[in-house]
Amino acid sequence: MAHPTQLGFQNAASPIMEELLHFHDHALMVVFLISALVLYIISLMLSTKLTHTSSMDAQEVEMVWTILPAIILILIALPSLQILYLMDEVNNPHLTIKAIGHQWYWSYEYTDYENLTFDSYMVPTYDLSPGNFRLLEVDHRIVVPLDSPIRVLISAEDVLHSWAVPALGIKTDAVPGRLNQTIMITSYPGLFYGQCSEICGSNHSFMPIVIESTPLKYFETWSKMMINS
Q1: Is the separation of the CB atoms in 176 and 161 below 8 Å?
Q2: What domain range includes position 124?
Q3: What are phi and psi for residue 152, nearest 5 degrees?
Q4: Percent of the chain as helix, strand, coil, to the nearest 5
Q5: What is the pTM of this model?
Q6: Bridge partners of 156?
Q7: Phi and psi, residue 44, nearest 5°
Q8: What are the tens digits of pLDDT across the range 23-33?
Q9: Which residues does the UniProt record annotate as the domain Cytochrome oxidase subunit II transmembrane region profile (predicted)?
Q10: Are 81 and 130 in a shared domain?
Q11: CB–CB of 167/207 below 8 Å?
């Protein structure tokens, strides 16, 4: 999760987030090189009075500064489109979870199980256990199996919400009357925190999301316990 004075992204916990981080570094390097070139040309123009008579009417120069930006845009667009299609691709999920936003809590339904539904509220500060995070801990976490493609169906009951977990590269709007879907795969076990990312009322800041990624045998034990409780 994020920590104080952090300037970059959180560590990637899913293949999609790893691709997003690689694309971010790729695009940032392109922007850095362009900025350095422009700064160099400006410094040359300000520091020298030498001119070339042919530079006022040069078809070759005009061709270069037309074609080169188009090539740069293609180099940025192609990996961006690839990641966009990967984020929309949902193939053979092992599990389906339905997340419904309310004012101001989340409710979850494991649609592959008959009676596995629960509400997830933020734990108040005075009820926190040692080691829990203020404004991020919930009374019921989402537990998912490790290294399994999981489809998440996202909707809302009342107003617009947004189901966002930065470490997994997920941010999907929850719209009343509409069902959006996304895919997530956790690369390693742990706790991944998120929050509602759409201003949805006075308690918008108090709708945390906690995903607990565990090996399959522990997930099966948890699901049996939740169904029997």
Answers
A1: no
A2: 95-228
A3: -115, 120
A4: 40, 25, 35
A5: 0.84
A6: 101, 176
A7: -65, -40
A8: 999 999 999 99
A9: 1-91
A10: no
A11: no
